[in-house]
Every structure is written in structure tokens, then in C-alpha cells.
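User: Modeling request: complex.
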Amino acid sequence: MRETAISGWLSIGSTYSAEIIGCSGVDCVTVDLQHGMIDVQTMIGMLQAISSTPATPMVRVPANDAALIMKSLDAGAYGIICPMIDSVSEATAFVAATRYPPKGSRSFGPARGLLYGGADYFDQADATIVRMAMIETQQGLAAVEDICAIDGLDGIFVGPSDLALALGKTPSNNSIEPEIVAAIDRCVNVARACGKQAGIFCSSGAHANARAREGFSFVVPNSEANILKSAIAAEVNAARGRRPL
Amino acid sequence: MRETAISGWLSIGSTYSAEIIGCSGVDCVTVDLQHGMIDVQTMIGMLQAISSTPATPMVRVPANDAALIMKSLDAGAYGIICPMIDSVSEATAFVAATRYPPKGSRSFGPARGLLYGGADYFDQADATIVRMAMIETQQGLAAVEDICAIDGLDGIFVGPSDLALALGKTPSNNSIEPEIVAAIDRCVNVARACGKQAGIFCSSGAHANARAREGFSFVVPNSEANILKSAIAAEVNAARGRRPL
Amino acid sequence: MRETAISGWLSIGSTYSAEIIGCSGVDCVTVDLQHGMIDVQTMIGMLQAISSTPATPMVRVPANDAALIMKSLDAGAYGIICPMIDSVSEATAFVAATRYPPKGSRSFGPARGLLYGGADYFDQADATIVRMAMIETQQGLAAVEDICAIDGLDGIFVGPSDLALALGKTPSNNSIEPEIVAAIDRCVNVARACGKQAGIFCSSGAHANARAREGFSFVVPNSEANILKSAIAAEVNAARGRRPL
Amino acid sequence: MRETAISGWLSIGSTYSAEIIGCSGVDCVTVDLQHGMIDVQTMIGMLQAISSTPATPMVRVPANDAALIMKSLDAGAYGIICPMIDSVSEATAFVAATRYPPKGSRSFGPARGLLYGGADYFDQADATIVRMAMIETQQGLAAVEDICAIDGLDGIFVGPSDLALALGKTPSNNSIEPEIVAAIDRCVNVARACGKQAGIFCSSGAHANARAREGFSFVVPNSEANILKSAIAAEVNAARGRRPL
Amino acid sequence: MRETAISGWLSIGSTYSAEIIGCSGVDCVTVDLQHGMIDVQTMIGMLQAISSTPATPMVRVPANDAALIMKSLDAGAYGIICPMIDSVSEATAFVAATRYPPKGSRSFGPARGLLYGGADYFDQADATIVRMAMIETQQGLAAVEDICAIDGLDGIFVGPSDLALALGKTPSNNSIEPEIVAAIDRCVNVARACGKQAGIFCSSGAHANARAREGFSFVVPNSEANILKSAIAAEVNAARGRRPL
Amino acid sequence: MRETAISGWLSIGSTYSAEIIGCSGVDCVTVDLQHGMIDVQTMIGMLQAISSTPATPMVRVPANDAALIMKSLDAGAYGIICPMIDSVSEATAFVAATRYPPKGSRSFGPARGLLYGGADYFDQADATIVRMAMIETQQGLAAVEDICAIDGLDGIFVGPSDLALALGKTPSNNSIEPEIVAAIDRCVNVARACGKQAGIFCSSGAHANARAREGFSFVVPNSEANILKSAIAAEVNAARGRRPL
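Assistant: Request completed. Predicted assembly structure:
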């Protein structure tokens, strides 16, 4: 990845829009199994579609569920973002699910890995796969130094809306509440100090760029569903001859 | 419909993005079976999703194929846009496929019609369904007066790219080639003179508004796939800190 | 088949409801590609599901379309009902699409045929497959003797609603209009005189039984969608403590 | 909801039968992810189809699985029925998964919520969503008072077959075993005393009405699969000219 | 099953290839939800397709997840292979999920069971369903005698690749590492001594036959994906006029 | 393509097996919409999966249907094989459907073309797309010189089974009937004399190699379904300890 990687984010369960995003100039594309309108079978086709583009396929799993993490990897994901990591033990379990023994507990059966990754998939997988733990609760925030120190974890990913909720605020991707700003600063600083990736979900490309300047190395300029929502609203507005939104 | 109806245009085969577009403020949404990455089974789910929004569901069929036109109507479409109408006989056959006997030849079996349209579907369908014939060839252009005069046809729909190709030009939705400008003018003028709808595919909302001012009563501010492509490119560009595209 | 065969009729695109109907005591099950909310890929799974039941799988195609007729057969249909047969030439073309040369023009590639039908599929297919031409227009009605005389056609199938429409009446499966009653009588009498099957779509099981007593040898006690609609309405009514509908 | 709400129950994985049930006069429709032949991607389309009808969409999840509960809500469910709730701690965890912090732990990302529920979804969701805990084990029965007392739980839902099994009897929805009758009475009485909803799965509409008269406020007149099974059997029987089943 | 049962193994998410394998002469077919590119909705269709063949349908679940085990059974699986069983308590929980109370905790709602298994499904299910616990870790290996002694467990299934990984070796289905050979010998011997089935995943039919001669009673001659991979490579090689691989 | 191109052939409707075949060393992969258990929506995902492999994606359409040919191209096919071409006029219509005006009549809207092919798709498409007309009837055979002479047609493709049927023989891919041998020789000789591709469906890789030595430049070593059928039968046979088939 480049200094700052930009990831597309997929909530629409379509292999075609997945390919559109993969061809858009992003570095990677994350299929969102948590809040996206996407289930596993659809994800498999989407990962295949992303494989035909220059972007690296990733998955945000809906929970720290080892079986689902392994299946996402077998289906060809090269990175996993895991929500709601609150402690070292949870982060350790997450990382273990992504690594073959003896370092981890991943079960062997890399279906698409062998097609997309090639015959040396088994040898290369552990070093190639990116693992990011989401920090979005008070407990996760409190444990961020210890989580960042875990061997095999590549970085953390901030979910600003859930973090805001956890801190008693309204969900927002770009809150200016001092407490939230401080919490996000803490995340990026700790991650950088540990030599780990710091990722974050943003509300737009401009916001993603601002986050990159704050030190984030992995930024998401909103989901394709939200980008489409704004863009179609703007076009409809223009079609009605109204002033820009 | 309002004075000028604005239609969303679906190329992505997803019920979720269909619903997003249906909730975007458009008057209707057209599922594009011709160039969209969408087949009939997916269309059925998309028409259901559109039914949950304020927008009217329509379908652009891939050809003047009576069986497929009837199936789209049974699946709940309230408007049909038919490509490549070159003559009165083709337009007449198209209209017949959308009307029950004695006015037409539609076969009876309005599956979703009875759910979405209600128990009086049979009585109301012919008067409610919108039928638009695409003018996109030299023959179609030559016959536009006669086509517009057909009873039961609600209007014409201009496919500017195919029309440009047919006139020996590069495909474009907003060509300034005089021959194409004249051809499009002719379409809108003839349709209005006949008291029929004049529809057109546009390259953006602003372009759709310009077309509305030209007299078009049904405008499409590009497909959701193209709108998403432009919007994600702009966001990625901003995320990289580059000047706006 | 027995003296009078009873066919389930599928409008709901689900492999599970297909299997439910196949296990319900019917002799065969017809997947309705014309008015059903079902496309070809879904049909394939439904034919597989029906194959696991005692019932014979059939397909009502949406039009006299040779490619689609052949694909339905390759997918394992053992009977084809073809709508809108108006003439001997149409009926002949329909039959030809279901038979291998030299008797017909079916292309060779019986994918599921070899699995479901067995290794002798090629030798047995032409003799085993049932072909029924729908009589539902004035022209079809006029030509019914000639259509019934066609070699290889196993019978005719009456679509009462479309026939009623064609005769200028309201669509209905059990019309008492003398003209429609006479037309239906004519169909069953001609078919029996020719030693061919006479099939008809009915509004209920009781109606199907009445049709059987009129001489029909293949009866459909309504679609599963309509049966479900009536049954759920009755249960909801009972749940509200109201008198039976 | 009315005094007694009637819910459809979906086991067939089809968006079309979902819409049929939603249009049948029921107050709400529950997609059964536990015993239904339905997975998450199909459920999303079914919830969209239900959204186009007057009925409120609900989901019976297959287990007390927070990620799946959240995804069902994001997909537009307005009620969740959770099986196998045996204790206050399980019921509390279930409720927490349906509520945003600080009252609960639901993660923020209400994809279809914003479309179907509108822009104020976040503010309204917690007050609008209905949560019912299934009482179907001896432990659950023993803890029913404490479970009913939980803040945020809207009611309990009795699974009579599993409850019968748990009490050593044959699974049945309308058992007359005194022990089961007593257990069900206890559930409805405790729920009413706590001012909570009492729901139950019934074997028919008439049975649902009887349950309503017993005090149940949420009744299910069997699944659409079972209703279809009975109805098709009755029609086939009638078609064969046999006496009613 | 015969003395030694041969099971097909499905990784490709297609109902058609499922049917091909079911017709291939195998005794049973296992849908692999763990490493296969298959999710639950697709599995349902595949189980239906297998039901139309002489082979018994089975499922390898992705984890010891009671809800998913129950759903696989409701969908018509007649055998469950459960991965990563490390202890008596895990094996007991697995078995419980497959049995109705009082012997187990399976929830009642046998959707396809009643269609495929028949009206006596409830009475026969517990005795008919085959349960196999996978031994593929050091803990599982250590506990194999105790696991084999569990009432209701029909046998064990060795995952040689994961077992090799667990023992610090390269994943392989036919390792000649003495430690692995000894571990596999131990599994088959313990299972036979307990009168239980001993199953194993093999690299080919010849290998499966060798395993049968070692005493295994349930053998898998590789997945259909791997068999296809080898076969297509051989055909392409031959097409290029090269010597056999 | 190389001197002799080898094409995989897909009858199984799975994106995963499509990717397996695309990674098998073939030059291209043909999705068979005619006899394959595959419909258009599934084809779109399969073309995306093939796009992630080194192989060129192609489609065999089910009929000379312009709308379907155009949709296959929009979905990313880079070659079309069209069945049942009997005359110059049919071949000309086929070719026209694949070319933009003024050379043809293809409608503009290259959805995946712009993603997979790149921004210059419109300029390059006509020169890049491969068009092969199937010769499988007596009329087609009689017209083969004239068909091969058509501008824009890249070659012919022999369907030996249908050709055998058309000549009154049993369907076979490697018949030794002199009449069929002569017909096939004629096809390859005419095509080569015209400087066109000569393609043929073969029964195995060895057979494909023999066909290449006969002069065919495009050979198909059977479908993946047939290859899998033979391979699984061989493995099951070996697993039973029987002598090789």
C-alpha cells in the first residue's frame, strides 16, 4: 500500500458496483458484512469482482467470529477489519483466526486463495493478510496501547459513529466534540507510536484527506451507498433546477 | 407525474441501490434490462423495492419482445420504455403487448399487479401504464410523426448515444453536432405537438434540467452506475488531496 | 399419468414451495415462466426440487421461443406448455423445438436430462416429453382441429382468462358466458376426438374436478400463489374472529 | 398495533410470497430465519417486499446472536423475536443488541432504516422496535416473571412445540396436555400482569382467535408454508373428487 | 451405508454440480459450509438437488454452532460433520444440537425434513441422522477415546491437513510424517474399538480406497473443486499435446 | 490467441468453478448460455470471475438473438459463439449485433466493457471481439463458404453432435461416420482457406489436440460438467477398489 491507503467501502450487495468501486482509483475495497446489505454468498462474488480490478479485496466482518473470518479469507479477502474489539484477549483471538498454526488457529482450505493468491498461498498468507481491530468502545479505547502491541495485528480502525455513541454523543463520522476528537487523536497517535496502521471511516474524500494529514494511514471516503445517496440527491436537485444542496 | 418527471435509471442489479434511488426524490425509477447488469429475476426484487418508495417503477426492456414486456408488467412495472422502435408497425406491436384485448394482446396474469396495483388492476392497468418508444435510429427519426400519432403510446424517449451513432457520430448524451441537435429538437417538437411525452437520457442533473427547459417532460439524470462512478472518482481524488476533477 | 392428471402450478420463485407442491399429491408440477415471478435460473433449481418429489416437472414457457423451450428441456422439464398457439405452423414449430432431428430441431446437450432421465435420455426423450399447445385466442380456437391433428403434439391446454378476453369478455377461469362455455366445450371435444390430452387452468380443486368430469384429462387447481392468497386470507379472517369469507 | 396483532410467518424464501402475505390483511409479517428456508440475503429482499405492503416487517432470528440481530434491524426489521431465552441475562443481552448506547450496544449503521424509517430513524428506533423473547424451555418458563420485568423487552413469544418438547411431550401447537396448557396460561398471565405483549405461534386462524381470547396480544396463524401445504392438499383432494379432508 | 461409505464433497456453490456428484455413484454427498464457496441459501438448493439423487445429503458446518447445525438439519441434511471438536463437552454440545429433547436441544421445525423424510420425521430423525466430530487438533486427538464414547455420536472424521498443521507439519491429506501417520492410526483404531464410524478426507479415489483398507468406514475422495482442478489441468495439458502431468 | 486456442466451457452456473477453469491454463473460457444450467444474471458474475483470471471471457448465446448478444457483450464477453447459423443472412445479422454503427447495429451502453476493457472500449471493441458462427445443420454446411466470407466474422465453430443429428446420425463429438468426418473436414478446410478461425467442441483434451492437428485453431476439451462427471466417476471407482473405468 501507499503511504496512505484509500479504501472503497461496499454496502450495496452487487458484484457490478463492487467492480465499479474497484476500478475507481482506490487502493483497496472493503466488503462490509456488518452494516452492508450483503451476505456471505454475495460477498464471494463481490470478492471475485474486486479481484479483476487493481484494488485489494478486504472484508469487514460483522463480529469477532472465527468461522466467518476464516471463510472470508478462504473466499479471497486479503484484509479483515473486525468490529468491537474491546480487549487484548479479543484482539488476540481475532488475529489467531487469521493465521495458520502454530501462530494461529485458522483451518486449512484456502479455496479462492489458491486461485487468486497462487500456489504459494499457504506460505505467503500470514505475511500478506492485513488485520485491523476496530476501536469503538470505551473499553477498546482504554486498551488501545495493549491492543496495538499485539503481534500480528497490523493496525486499528476507528469507527467514529460507534465511538461517539460509546462516549455518550450523537453518532457522527466527523464530530467536533472535544472528547471524541481527543479519543480519535489518541488512537492515531498510539497506532503510529507502535508502528501500526491507523484506519478510520470518513464522511467524504475531503474528510479522508484531512484524516490522512492527521496521520491516518488507511482512510475510507464513506460507503458507496452514502456516496450514491448524496450524488443522486444532487443530480435530482439539479434536474429540478434548484440551487445546489 | 409532474410537468417534468425525473426518472432514476438502474444499471446495478441490487434491490438496495434500487431502494436508495427510489428514496432520492425522483418521480420514477427505470430498471434498465437492456444495458444494465440486471436480469429478470433480479428485476422482480428491484421492482418490489421500488414499490416501497414514493417513486413509480418502470422498466426499459432490452428489445421489442412481447413476452418480456408482459412479464415486466406482471412484475409490477407501471411504465415500459422500448428500444429501437423504427416504424409504426413496431410501435403498434409494442403498445399492443402492454394492453389487454380487445385493444391489445397482453396475456392475463397480473401477479404483482394485483398486490401493488390493487384489486381493480385489470380495469385500471391500460389507462395507468406509461409506454414510451425509443427513437434512436434514422428510420425511427424519419417516422417520428407517425409513431407519435399512435393511440396508446404515451410518448417517445430519445437515446442520444445510439441516435448519434445512427447519424454517423460518436456516441454521446450531450453532443453539439448540429445534425444531432436538430434531430433531438425534432423529437421533442413532434412529441409536444402530438400531446405526447418527450423523454430523454441525460448526462447529469444539470443537463436534465436543460433538457426540461428544451421541452422534455421526462428526463433521466444519468444511470446510478455512472453517477456512482463520477462521485466515487471525485471522492477518491479528494482523499488523495488533489484538485477537483 | 392417470386418467386425469392434476398439475400443481408455480408462480412463486422458490425451490422450497416447489418441493411442497411436488409433495402434495399432484401428478405433475408446472413452473410458470410466463406469468410467474420466476426466471430461468430460479426455474432450474425448482426443477431440481421437483425432481426430488413424486411429481413430474413441467414448464409453461412465456412464448413460442425455441431457445427457451430447449433450455427448459435441458434443465429437466418433462413437459412443455406453450402459450398463444394460433395456427398449425406455430404449433408445428413448437413441437419441432422439443424433438431431436430428424423429427425436430432440438439442439443436443441434455444437461440435467442425463442426470434425471438417465443414460438413455436421448433415446427416450421424444417419446416421454409431453407437449401442450395453449388455445387462448380466436385464431387458435378456429384452428383447434388442425392443431390437434399435429403429430407429436400431445394435447392442448385452455387458458380460460385469455380466451375470455379474446372473445371480448372479462378474464375469468370459470366464466358462464355461453360463448366461452361453448369455446371450452369445443376444445375438449376436439381434443378427445383426436385422442389428445385436453388440459385447462381452473380456479380451485372443486372446479378442476368439474372440468375432469367435463372430459379434461389434465387440470390445474389454480396456482400456488392464488391458493396461498385465499388460504392466508381465510386464516387471517378466522384469526380476527370474523365469519368465514 | 391493534389490540391483538396478527402476524404472518414466512418460511418460504421468496420475496413474492412475502409480498402476498404482507397484502393479506395481517398487521405484521415475521421472516423466520430459524426454521424457515431463508438466509440473510434473501431476508433483505423479503423485508423490502414487506415494506411495500401495509404490514410491519419483523424477523425471528435463529439464535441470540447480537451481530445477526443488528443486521436484521439494519435491513429494516421493526421487530425481533429471539428464540431460546432462558434467563434474565440472556434476555438482557438480547434487548441490548437492539438498542443504541447508552441503553444498549447496537452498532450504528442503519442502512435500510434510513430509507424505510426516515431521517429520524436514530431518534425513533429504540422506541419503535418491538422485542419479544421466546419462552420455550423449562428454564425460560421458570424465569418468565423476571424476563417480563426487563426494561426494553416488549413481550414474550411462546413456541408451543418446543415448550412441549421441553416438558417431555410431543411437539404440537395446540396440545391439550394439562402441563402444557398450564405453562402457556402462566406465560400469558405473567406477560399481561407486567403490561407486556404475549405472543404465540398457532396452528390456524381459528386457533389464533382462540389464543387472542385467552389473552394473547400477538398471534401467528401458522407459517405460510404450512398454510400452503394444507390448502394445496385440500385442493388436490377436491380435484380428485374425494370428500373434504 | 455400505461397509465403507464414499462421500462426495461440495465446495462449488451450484445445485447442478451437486446433482452431478449425487449421481456419480457415491453413497452420500457432503456440502462443505466451512471451506466451500457456499452459504446457507445456496446450501438449501443443493440439499434439494442431492435429494433427487440416490445419495444421502450431509453438511459440514463451519463451526460448532447450534443454530446453524439445526438449520442444516431442517434444510434436509441427514448427516452433520462438525469441525474442531476438542473435548467431550464440545462433542456433547454438538450431539445435543442434533437431537430433539429430552435427549438434546434441537428446536422443532423440520421444514424439509417433513417433505424429504416424510410424516414420521420427528420419530425417526434422531436415529437416522449421522453425527461426526472432526478430530483435527492436539486436544481433540488427546480426547479421542472419550469423544468416541459419547452416546449419540456416530463417529469421528479426520481432517488430515488441519491435524498436520496442529502437529507442526505442512498441511497435507496424505502426509507420511510418522507423527501424523500415528495420529491417524490412533483415530481409526479408537473409533473402531468403540464401534463408531471413522471418516477421513482423502486426496483421491485411490487414496480413499487405501484409507478404507486401513479401516476407515467413511471416505471422501477429495472435493469436487479439487477433482475438477486436476481433471481440467489434465485435459488442457492433453489439448496442448504435452505428456501427461 | 496462440496458434491454437484452447477454451474452457462452462455448464455449471457457479462463479467459483468459472474461476477454477479460468486459472487452469486455458486461453479463454466460454460461458454456455445454450445448454449450460446458467442464466444471464449468473453469467454476469461468471464473466467477472473469469476477468480475474488470465483467460479471455466468451459466451455461447442460446440463439441468434440480438438483444442477448448485445447484453453478453455489455457484460464483458470478448467473444460470442452463435448457434444454428444456416445462411449468410443469419450470419450477417449475428455479426451486426456485435458491432456499433455504422458497421453494425449494436446499441451503446458498454457497462462492464468500460471497466474491464478500459476507457477506449468503444474504439477497440469491434476489432477485439471475436465472433464465431456455429455450423451444425445441413443448410449451414452448404453455405459454409459464403458464411466464411462474411466481413467481421472471425470464424466458424462446429457443433459435432448437432451436425451428426442433422446428417441423420447419432449425436457424438467424435463420430467416425464418413459423412460426418467429411463435413467436419470441409468446415476446417473452408475456414482456413478464408483465413478464418475454425473452432470445434471436443470430447477430451486428447481429442482437442487431435482436432488441432487437423487444422482447428480453437478447440474445447469438453465442458467442465462433463469433465467433472468423468473425473468423479473415476475417483469413486478407485475409492471402491475397482479397476479403472
